[in-house]
From TrEMBL, chain A:
Keywords: Germination, Membrane, Transmembrane, Transmembrane helix, Transport. It comes from the Bacteria. This is Spore gernimation protein. Pfam families: Spore_permease. The keyword Transmembrane applies.
Amino acid sequence: MNVNMEMKKQNTINAFLVLFVVHTAQMGIGVAGIQRVLYKEVQQDAWIVIILSGVITCLIVWIIGKTLSEYENHTLFDIHLDIYGKWLGKFVNLLIVLYLFSVFLSICLGYIEIVQAWMFEKMPSWLIGAFLIILTGKGVRSGFRPIVGVCFLAFLSAIWMLFIFFAEPLKFAEWHYLFPMFELTSTELYKGMIKTSYSLLGFELLYFIYPFVKEKEKAVRFAILGVIASIVILVILTVIAIGYFSGEQLERTIWATISMFKIVKLPFIERFEYIAIPVWMIIIIPNLLLYMWAASKGIKISFGYRQSYALYVFLLLSLVVFIFFNKRLHINMFIDYVGMIGLYVCYVYPIILYIAVRIKKSLQN
Amino acid sequence: MGNEKMDEIEKPIDVQEWTKGITHYTNNSPDLIIKHVERDKKGAVFLYLDNMINHQEFSMLLLNLDQMKVLKYEELEPLILTKKISYSSELLQTVDAINTGAVCLLMENETKCMLISLSKLVERPLSASENESMIFGPSITFSESISTNIALLRKNITDRNLCTEKFLVGERNSTEVRIVYIKDIANEDNIATMKQRIQDLKIDDPIDSNVLAQLLDDNSLSLFPQALTTELPDRVCYMLGKGKIAIFVDRSPSVIIAPSSFLNFFETTDDVYTRWNIGSFLRIVRFIAMMLSLLLTPAYVAALTYHYEIIPSPLLLSLGQSRASVPFPPVLEALILEFILELLRESGARLPTKVGQTMGIVGGIVIGQAAVDAGFTSNILIIIIALSALGTFTAPSYMMGAVIRIVRFPLIILAGLWGGIGLIFGLLYIIIHLLKLTSFGTPYLVPIYPFRFSDWKDSLFRVPPQYAGKRPETNRPIDIIRYSRTNAKQRKDIDE
């Protein structure tokens, strides 16, 4: 089955932009509170765990690149149709689309939670959700290139926040909290790596953007650079947080990154988290756009409906979810489940798929 | 069939009938003058509109005719050296020509009539720019006549690759439109797009180049202008040299420059005339001014309505004092004051210059001071609004300044309703919109996205001349090298 898409030139992007796509896709809600989760598992050695799982993530990205380079202009959906055949392929694609959509929902729900916890206790979930839905609708309708543009500009307009950590919380950091180093046991390491992997999800989007890259050979290289950028940021945030909070404090602080903004003091601005949380919308918007774009693209490729109709249906569905699904406990469970599924989709499945593709190719020869 | 047609063309025109016809189709215009000239029993008639032609030239022509006793078009033609001559055998075409200032000469036993273009130029003398003010550089502006404008451009650009292609736009009120570009710099795709769009236009009257620019837009629903218009010849030259295309429209002193990106609206030739470091500084000041005028008032509203925690306590104290007697919530206060400012600006634009100075008094003293004294608004908000108003006026393009002013209103309302979240939502919406927007097929936010770092030196800031040897890549120019970088500045060792 030849499903190679013809790429229009005005839709393709330069390879170096893959860096920003992958990086901004990985940065999201996870960054706001990864420190506590990790600290609970591996205490002061959290940063080692991040580096190790980063290495594994880079390996997986490399495998994804290998899989994709077997084909020319294929997204994951096309590869599925090719490998599993028409009906099974469509079914698997539907599962993937469901996964992408639930990641979209979980990011939205996570952000809504942060806004309600920190800024507007009484602001209804559906209202914050509606903001995100309007932006997603507007963005995805614009097409792929503007979406990548959003990733790029979001990176530029959010990265400055990192320097605030160097300016303020670093002054109060106690470095002896980081010692003794290398006290991990192997079970701790395993658990810690699983927890970190939640925050590194997002690189699987390479499966969907790959056909749109101009110089395909370089795409994987830049994707790996993107992952490295995310790991550097995670390590910085974690090390500063471990130094800034005491162990007990950190275990009780759900969003350590945002909490650290509280002490920033400039002549005309205090309580920086009130700026950081709105700006966090800029950080999650690339995620929302990319996931929603990939999900609606999947519907188009597998079932032939118009992508914009798929988009409207998804957005309407998510509005319904935001209106009726607002028990805190359920939401947290949902987010945990999505993370768990994401772990299998992003870390286990690419290996299986690569083997399947190899087998299929060797059979053809 | 074929024979008949041949007959029609060959048949000599009936002077009497044509005279009647022309009178009829010019709607019995009282200006139409019909002059019979008889020579050797052979009749000739001149028809023209009295107020449309240059009488001095016409009488010269008549004088010549008298001396030479000309009887045929062929003999007449060498006598009229400088004027455009055309022939027509169609009545309606002839009438159109007479309407635009031609003298029609009908002779018996001829198959067509002669049209001598003797139109009188109706124009004002070229004057200094009033709307786009500059500190350095030539101050002459375009006028309302396209032929003068093209002449002015030719004075500025002697490049033999300068092309000025002519089109007629408008079904009823057909207007001359020129697409101007430098052949080996401007990109052919852009030129083709432009021509296609102009040829596809179906309107009765383009009115003005600003109207034409709107008709050629990629997205007419957008707030943002997608083509720059300017009155300054040197700005047009500067843009043509960058590989852009200019559109001149008759009757309009402003020239369309396209494709224009968002950053082009913040460039002036002033930046180029000053030294590169000052030029860069001025540009950056303009961008900061734009950001301030967009964000300052909404941020004030958001902070005072919901997030007063972010304001340090000494500052909050003075803010609270100045707001103590204001009965409105910050949104309303800001909206009222912004609206008053818009009123001042708009009435200032409509007022005749003689009474314009009253605006300063009304705006400055009556509204500013009295509003605070009456407890209507706070001092600090007046400062903020004044700052953001100043910021919008730094945009060299009036259009872009107006857009920033308008965009501020929804941002203030969003900030008033939902604080920081609403404000960021509004900003992100604008950013996504700008990313989607194109100007004649070129992305609007270029060179920020699509990212072209080498073009930043031509839009965001300026660099010393030895590094500016290349034209911006954005317009995909054919000849990208302005001048050789190594020749521009020889490297020298110490003490050489």
